[in-house]
Amino acid sequence: MALLEHPQVGPAQNHIDGIWRHGPVSERRETFDPATGKILGHYDPGTVDLMDEAIAAARRAFDETAWASAPRLRAEVLLKLAARLSADHERLATLNAYENGKSFIQAKNEVATAISEAKYYAGLARSMTGRMMEPEPGCYSLISREPMGVAGIIVPWNAPVTLLLRSLAAALAAGCTAVVKPAPQTPLINAAVIQHLVAITEIPDGVVNSINDGGPAVGERLVASSDVDVISFTGSSAVGKRIMAAAAPTLKRVSLELGGKTPSIIFDDADLDKAISELARASLVNSGQQCVAASRFLVHRNVLDDFADGMMQRLRSVPVGPGYDTDNLVGAIIDRPNRDRLLGWLDRCADDGDILLRGETLDERYPGGAFLTPSLVLVSSTEALTVQEELFGPIITLEPFADEDEALAKAHATAYGLAASVFTRELDRSLRMARRLRAGTVWLNTHGKLIAEAEMEGHRESGIGRLHGADAIGEFQQTKHIYLPFGQS
Ligand code: NAD
């Protein structure tokens, strides 16, 4: 057992216009270690007034500094950020494992992914181009892509480093200034990353601001403000719908990366050992609290028993415990209320199907901790709420199918369309299924790989807009046509 030491960090403050702002000590809020339930640190909550100041600072920085028209500067800042995060990789991963509860290896991968985002968007910042046409002799049309202005970036707790950078790096590369609103569960790791960014001397004050959570009114102000031009939100579909409605009065652009209920389809010709090992890992990433976690196993009837036996063996043997003990591969649920919500779902699963493997709390071993070991539930009806709802935890359904059409019908039976995976040895079938699946990402004989270079778009109620890849830059840009009659006489 290797227990990593908690990196001591001060209270997470708000950052506005180049200055860290602390509130009254009496108003400080606590952040908790999900593995023990004990206080981990403190943060100064955001307020509507602080949010207004941050938006005003971002507006000024956009209108009055060179940032919006300095792509080389933006690339340099993002490269410096990548270098700073790399130099602090272990400490950031440890802090993430403590505050979010995920295993250290997953926390480390998360920071590595964030570094990759920063480097990728640094490159794109220098290679954005427009178009030029001459539709009639001597008449020139220049089509340029301009940064939208102020970007509001709202981040969930489940991957607080990667998801911050996935939006923020693209927004900064495009030339926007930003106001970040992290989740209330993960203010310490958010502040640690923002510290690296704002410490880069070349970045003008006000380009990046960060306002902690302080209740719904703080995020709502960011969405409603007429000085904010685009909202990049990652979170649940329910909140995404509220954000879209709240953005309507100002007609601001919204990019919504929302929930999922990701099916994995396993055919009877698949390499079962490989499928089981891939999917055990992919279903338990971040204790199943990941938008693209494999949460539904759709398995051909011919191999249902073999798959179920092999999977249960795997799920039982995964070491679960505090993420900062490097022996553990699966960490804690984000907090006790969410762990207890999942226990409620397990009670309900008994009505929906057969619980083949029932998850256990580890309360005796880790009193105060929010642990739940994996569960596997055999369900036949897609109408079961266990199938319909995003449970966001280590409860996975097992659903039999007889042929491709039934597999697709079952895969499409929920409102979500974030991702899917297919396991088969037949190339034709794998590509046919990939084409027919209504999902923004499809993995073949693997599950869960997301890379900075490849666009990610939630279909159906999993979202609107694209992050990752070159298209993500477009989420933070608008188009301008400049018409120029020239050289006609
Ligand atoms: P959430 O929707 O509860 O909260 C997300 C963020 O929105 C938090 O910062 C929260 O404080 C803020 N928020 C809540 N209400 C708001 C409002 N009215 N106005 C403005 N901001 C508001 O989600 P969560 O529990 O933090 O995260 C889990 C969810 O995120 C899951 O549904 C998961 O699938 C989804 N998710 C999606 C992706 C993706 O790429 N599609 C990635 C990660 C997580």
Structure commentary:
GO terms for molecular function: oxidoreductase activity, acting on the aldehyde or oxo group of donors, NAD or NADP as acceptor. Residues 27-482 form the Aldehyde dehydrogenase domain. Keywords: Oxidoreductase. Belongs to the aldehyde dehydrogenase family. Helices cover 37% and strands 22% of the residues. It is of the alpha/beta class and 489 residues long. The protein has two domains: 14-258 and 463-480, Aldehyde Dehydrogenase, Chain A, domain 1, CATH 3.40.605.10; 262-451, Aldehyde Dehydrogenase, Chain A, domain 2 (3-Layer(aba) Sandwich), CATH 3.40.309.10. A seven-stranded mixed beta sheet has the order 14-15-16-13-12-18-19, with helices on both faces. Strand 5 (131-136) and strand 6 (139-147) form a beta hairpin. Helix 1 packs parallel to helix 7, helix 3 (89-100) packs across helix 4 (104-125) and helix 3 (89-100) runs antiparallel to helix 6 (187-198). It binds nicotinamide-adenine-dinucleotide. Residues 154-159, 163, 181, 183-184, 213, 216, 219-220, 223, 234-236, 239, 242-243, 257-260, 291, 390, 392, 418, 458, 463 line the site of nicotinamide-adenine-dinucleotide. Nicotinamide-adenine-dinucleotide binds next to helix 7 and helix 8.
